Model the fold of this input.
Amino acid sequence: MPVKADPQSAEKVIVEGLAEVGADPSEITREATFEALDVDSLDLVEIAQIVEDEFGIELVGDDVQGLKTVGDVIDLVVRKAA
Amino acid sequence: MSEGVALVTGASGGIGAAVAETISAQGRPVAVHYRSDRDGADAVVARIEASGGEAAAFHADISDPEAIDGLVAGVEDRLGPVLVLVNNAGRRADGLAPQLDDDQWDRVIETNLNAAFRLTRRTLKPMLRARFGRIVNVASIVGPRANAGQANYAASKAGLIGMTRTIAVEVARRGVTVNAVAPGFVETGLTADLPEDAFAGEIPLRRAGTAEEIAACVGFLASDAASYVTGTTLTADGGLSA
Done:
């Protein structure tokens, strides 16, 4: 069953997801850009799927355009969970 | 062979039924989708089971966007993850453009194009995570070619081919391939009202195709063997568009 996302749980799930798709864990910070982490658009699709499984939140459509940093995604998840 | 189940839409008869049996013969469990012909779908399942395969029938009106998730989730629960999708379900509502009403236009686009997109979007998620997937869209030579009276059908099938190419390049690096098969004149329920004689003279092979001949093409593109083929349309029309 999906659980409700709060800033801590959202950050944990997204950081773990980034590591799963191959980002270097030591470089994952809120400010890190996906470009710097070598995370591509399909990796973000997979992270969106992990977020959906975990929190029941769909990251689709205009909301996901323009996401550049790890913090952008965490903030989006927390905003959509509110 | 790779893991995963094949979902074939519109598989209660015609090309879809032949595709379901062809993919089953490759050793993969098959979800036989149908909208109205339950007896046809049950017969396909029975034939697959009689040959030692695994299959189950699933009902859904895929022109309803709300039905898509339920269909795929039902297949996942009963048979396993859908890693092969064959968007075969199609319908016609013919008429010259000045006399095509919105309902005729919309219902052809909804089933032939919109449902194929929604099923693709839904099943791509597990395919991407599995690093394997096969999507085969049953298009038509009508689309690339003109056929008076089928503006809606042609638009849907041309759209399907454009979608095939585009999604193919989006997901290729995850081992997911997306291709189309473009049949010419094939003897099925969908073409039962069309006189074969009117077409046969123009076809270099001098006959209509069979559902099994189209299914052989779909079966190849859905197989592990087609791993380096993506974004293409395999035309199977007896040479009509050669």
About this structure: Residues 109 and 142 of chain B are 14 Å apart (CA to CA). The radius of gyration of chain B is 17 Å. Residues 5-236 of chain B form a domain with the Rossmann fold fold (CATH 3.40.50.720). Chain B touches chain A through seven residues (CB under 8 Å).
